[in-house]
User: Fold these one by one.
Assistant:
Number 1:
Amino acid sequence: MPLEEARVPVMDRGFIFGDGIYEVIPAYSRKPFRLKEHLKRLQASLDSIRLKNPHSDSQWTELCAQLVAQNQGEDQYIYLHVTRGPAKREHAFPKQIHPTVFMMSTPLQTTPPELLKTGVAAITAQDNRWLRCDIKAISLLPNVLLRQMAVDCGTVETVLLRDGILTEGAASNIFVVKYGVVLAPPKNHLILPGITYDVVLELAAAHSIPHQVRAVSESEVRAAQELWMTSSAKEVLAITTLDNQPVGDGKPGKLFWRAGLWASSFHCLNTRAPSLSRSWAGTGRDLPRQ
Ligand code: PLP
């Protein structure tokens, strides 16, 4: 149905309490990317909030296929959302649960080649979110406020630090390059286990880029040679200015080009994404051989 006609009861616990979880799945050439992994993370989020999955993986797969078929664009952005449904306002779970499932798909906006070439600016802030950032919860108010801080400063992302340690971005995972080694904060309750994060680490391993998954200190972030943000929406994007200071030489670094181009070609190989390859083609960069 058209988005404007979709309705949710005002007593839905998603609306009243933010009691629900969501997923964002890019579809390249109309094929959902890493659907199995997204559905696994969806299940983990549902388990964490003690909500029974309303659909089996094969039903979700079919729903995603129908949604993509009915919407515009070869490359799309599937958003799906499950809440604990409508009930009398009471914090504890209702006895009878009728989950609300909402799905929509919009054309995927890829990063313009100019931004890939220049990188983007970011700020840092204290990570003041709760301690279950591994759940892809719809209650995103802290992330909304933290991302808005970035926008208010004319930048693209807020890099979050908790007790002097890097966690992630307001809506992305963050990688640091130091002495030619890619550093990634470990997956734990302080970060969302990003699907793109996994792709980047797999590509680093496959192409013998030195990498380590370990706690990364604030001073390592500030002295980084390169900083990258990753997400399904932004893919891999270099952060070239942090708190008004250049990161490294202030340009996307050598490893960014390798990882970004490999990620792009990986998407193309796996899902034939014409618009994605166009974005990278616009940078004038060739795929490195090694
Ligand atoms: N961390 C946060 C807080 C996010 O909101 C997102 C994506 O929206 C990510 C990380 C990246 O996850 P993914 O690569 O699965 O999009």
Note: DSSP finds nine helices and 13 strands in the chain.
Number 2:
Amino acid sequence: MRILKFGGTSVGAVESIRNVKNIVLSQPGEKILVLSAMAGVTNELVKISDLMKAGNLGEISKVIDDLRLKHELAINELIQNNQIKQETNLRLNKIFGELENTTKKTHSETVYSEIVTFGETILTIIFSQFLKSEGINNQWLDAKEFMYVSNLENPDTRRVGELFEEVTSAKDQSDIYITQGFVCINKNNQISTLKRGGSDYTATILGASINAKEVQIWTDIDGFHNNDPRYVENTHRISELSFEEAAELAYFGAKILHPQTISPVMDKNIPIYLKNTFTPESSGTRISPEVRHKGLKAISAKDGITAIKIKSNRMLMAHGFLRKIFDVFDNYETAIDMITTSEIAISLTIDDDRNLNEILAELDSYAEITVEKNHSIICVVGESVIEDKHTYRLFELLNDIPVRMISYGGSSNNISLLVDTENKIATLRKLNEKLFSTSLISETA
Ligand code: ADP
Ligand code: ASP
Ligand code: MG
């Protein structure tokens, strides 16, 4: 069994949806397709949720009408068989009725999740019906029947696997199963999401749950690049990454993968292939346990970082002080990304600042606190990158970019720098230019 995940742009237009069909048919054996919503749809659904929250109910129906039209047009172009087209339009009507009813509920976290996951439900139904109209047998599966994820950081893949088995064995066998990315059921048995971009994570959770042979992530670029192509010119594809390298890059902001994508398949050694839906013949990036090349591979950036400096003349080196500080963050389930210490101060960073005020109030009793928001972590990644004789050039570059913190040696695969977000693009560009000059490129496309 293989997992094939197609992202928003891959299913964003009728032509791309036809490409997806061809890619699926070109591969033998059993497949589970994990599909996102059409490009832009989740953003519109988030807008509906925001309008509800703001009590601006008048504008909601216009957004819903536009979404309905977009999907009706897709059905019209994709499905030629009149009976299947009619059946699909009836299902679409029913779902839009449910969406309208949901917008009449009182807003809550769960209602947000119910609304934003409609995009995946609608698109998977259209795609399943499209295949059916082309005479391709397939089974549509409701992810809400098996994607039970109580702990977002550590999903119980065994449970998902058992539920998946239960759901599929009650249906006719098929070589093609189609399900929704992004959506899950949380620990309170309510509809929830794996966070924005979460369909990648659905694919690897499901891959680990059923011990898939491989997970393919189909997107709009030819693979993992050595730097963020949205901000930097002349980036290049990387043909191979290790699990550790890809996990660091995804966690530290490489948008091509949801931050948690790698962890479910790591223990099971299930490889991930990143491929381009628009040029399926090109080889993409393979992510696996193997390390074929050591040294610098790629740079990524993670925004929305808050730096906290904790200064205490009296207590820092006293036994038990660090534990007290960490306990405060732990009590609020807030992960720390970077940390540096001196004799009288600790600086650390967090990206989840939902409980910042409560955390600061508690820390205040131990030390003097300074907080700086709007920072970015720039992450330089590669197996044994810290042993790379060229990484000294990193420090040479830091002269004209103010760096707030450096983490070097925490892992041999990662060097992290904290900069003000307004210097992020300049830092990425400069590092690209200086570190990926020909003599330093450890691997090119
Ligand atoms: P999908 O909708 O298929 O999930 P995403 O937009 O989430 O696609 O991810 C693909 C995009 O990620 C690319 O178009 C590219 O702009 C962006 N991206 C950011 N960093 C990288 C990187 N290091 N390598 C490749 N793409 C990247
Ligand atoms: N459609 C969801 C989003 O836009 C999930 C995904 O695309 O992975 O965030
Ligand atoms: Mg994505």
Note: DSSP finds 14 helices and 16 strands in the chain.
